[in-house]
Amino acid sequence: MQHGVTTGTGRILRRRGMTRGGVFVALLLLCGACAYSFRGTLPPHLDSIAIPLMENRTPEAGITEDLTDLLREEFLQEGLFKVSSLERADCRLDATLLSVSERADNFTDEDVVTNIRLSLRVEVHFVDLVEDRELWVDTFNEFGLFDPDSETRDDAIDEAVEKLVQKINQRILSDW
Questions:
Q1: What's this model's pTM, rounded to 2 decimal places?
Q2: Domain coverage including residue 4
Q3: Is the same domain home to 54 and 14?
Q4: Predicted pLDDT at 41
């Protein structure tokens, strides 16, 4: 008879010096790794972020306000940075809405439009205010679809804005 802790595969762990206590510690470490926060990977001096109202280079009204508000909400919910005023922030996220475009995306056999693709193009600058340097500049393109018979243009704008917020958030984390 073999002595030891049996795994789900029937392998005995004691042979390698692993006891029940060792298994418990290993599980704790594994769980701790699962709870690891991306916060630890960012430069340590970046604790707070300013997100000024986005500049708008299009004739569209309301999109920049929605995108700015959603970006602020995302950072508040994620807890990655404290959202603060420009005077108190360690970094700044500047963004400009460059374009809004629409085009037919799907048609029926009778050439009736069934989906319209609404695209937003945004340029974003992420600036370290403590070290007074630009960390990166990137342009993001996202879209939302809407059926002109059953949905509104605003539905597509909301979809594109949500996608942009996720992409910008991912971009901030990707370099660290």
A1: 0.74
A2: 1-36
A3: no
A4: 56
